[in-house]
């Protein structure tokens, strides 16, 4: 059985680009591809086959961004009570008071929680009382809702991809410097 429905070949000067379009009837159960300007490449595919490193979601595929409803709630000392919505894209970032000169802390909840949970607000408040930070609370309550634990596990991959795109754009458009991990 041929698993490819089409192969598109495009010649650009001396470079040849080959795009392989998979047969969705074959891959449909094992892979989901989502298009969104808020994903790192504009389109991301997530695989749950035995060849994938991600087999902990018991055959659940991530929900695409348009249905996942992820919100990034941005706070700083000047806006510490009411969140500014922030998302990937130059225009979306520059309309906020985000500063690439301040340290940025991103806080993300887990299963059955939400971005406005008391512990997240308390953490944000404590950070802003002790320092001049950019604080971003990640709210993915619809994708983290119970009782579907393994669907939430699968959705963490999409949430991570959306966070990665936001971090990249914050770096590109504000020269923000990011270090991964806990502060020393």
TrEMBL record:
Coiled-coil zones: none
Keywords of the record: Secreted
GO cellular component terms, A-Z: extracellular space
Stored SUPFAM superfamilies: alpha/beta-Hydrolases
Highest taxon in the source lineage: Eukaryota
Record keyword Secreted present: yes
UniProt record similarity statement: Belongs to the AB hydrolase superfamily. Lipase family.
PANTHER family recorded: LIPASE
Protein name as annotated: Pancreatic lipase-related protein 2
Native species: Plakobranchus ocellatus
Taxonomic classification: Eukaryota, Metazoa, Spiralia, Lophotrochozoa, Mollusca
């Amino acid at each position: 059985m041929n698993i490819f429905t089409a192969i598109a070949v495009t010649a650009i000067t001396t470079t040849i680009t080959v795009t392989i379009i998979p047969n969705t009837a074959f891959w449909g159960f094992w892979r989901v591809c989502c298009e969104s300007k808020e994903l790192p490449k504009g389109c991301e595919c997530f695989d749950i086959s035995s060849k994938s490193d991600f087999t902990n979601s018991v055959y659940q595929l991530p929900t695409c961004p348009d249905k996942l409803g992820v919100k990034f709630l941005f706070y700083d000392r000047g806006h510490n009570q009411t969140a500014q919505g922030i998302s990937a894209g130059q225009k979306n970032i520059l309309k906020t008071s985000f500063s690439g000169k301040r340290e940025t802390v991103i806080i993300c909840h887990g299963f059955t929680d939400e971005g406005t949970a008391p512990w997240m607000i308390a953490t944000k408040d404590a950070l802003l009382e002790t320092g001049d930070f950019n604080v971003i609370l990640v709210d993915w309550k619809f994708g983290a809702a119970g009782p579907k634990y393994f669907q939430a596990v699968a959705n963490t991959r999409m949430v991570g991809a959306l966070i990665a795109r936001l971090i990249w754009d914050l770096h590109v458009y504000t020269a923000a410097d990011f270090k991964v991990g806990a502060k020393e």
